[in-house]
Design brief:
This protein is of the alpha/beta class. Helices cover about 30% and strands about 15% of the residues. It has a single domain, classed as Rossmann fold (3-Layer(aba) Sandwich). Helix 4 links the parallel strand 4 (about 130-135) and strand 5 (about 150-155).
């Protein structure tokens, strides 16, 4: 079986409108551009995978079991726009959380790449051909550490701007529509044959 490329999507502030620590399905709505961008990417063979930090579990704001209804809501919303969700991965941990079983150092909390790496193993994904889209630089870094390219949404999610080489995005966009434009353009550019004096060369 040939590994498939994926679009890894941060959840809050990227795939859906940001409602802090929300697990109420009624308040979960797709973010700007999702209804246009995600079908375009799916048609081009990208698997869509959510990778999300959910420290509200470690903080004691809600039970981990609440994530089941969150996943069900996301699958329903994506189904309505004709897009399957290949995977839903989240990190429940926070070192200084108030719930002891989740107050641990882990390998899955972004900017660590554990969620993406696990998804790639489970779903047979090609990380080198994949993209991470998120609204903060931790998302960018997680994507790069997993071997993907990364796009930062400039929607106000990032406020600290702790920049390093790993945290420099490959592209920026204001919403998912713009992110899809950049991914598709990059794919077309990579597939374009070389040119000599303006003439395409078949290889």
């Amino acid at each position: 079986m040939t590994s498939r490329p994926a679009i890894f999507l941060d959840k809050d502030g990227t795939l859906v409108r940001d409602v802090p620590y929300n697990v109420d399905p009624a308040l979960i709505e797709l973010g700007p551009g999702a209804d246009v961008a995600l079908p375009r990417l799916a048609r081009r063979g990208y698997e869509l995978v959510v990778v999300s930090n959910q420290s509200g579990i470690a903080r004691g704001y809600f039970e981990e079991s609440a994530m089941r209804q969150v996943e069900e809501r996301l699958r329903k919303l994506l189904h309505e726009i004709g897009v399957p969700l290949a995977g839903f991965y989240y990190c429940p941990h926070l070192v200084d959380g108030s719930v002891p079983q989740y107050a641990v150092a882990c390998k899955c909390r972004k900017p660590k790449p554990g969620l993406l790496v696990q998804a790639a193993r489970d779903l047979d994904l090609d990380l080198a051909a994949s993209w991470m889209i998120g609204d903060i630089l931790d998302d960018v870094e997680a994507g790069h550490r997993a071997g993907c390219r990364s796009i930062l949404l400039l929607n106000g999610g990032e406020t600290v701007w702790d920049v390093s080489d790993e945290r420099l995005p490959d592209a920026v966009a204001k919403d998912l529509t713009g992110a899809a434009d950049r991914i598709i353009a990059a794919t077309r550019s990579a597939a374009r044959p070389p040119r000599i004096k303006g003439v395409a060369v078949n290889v």
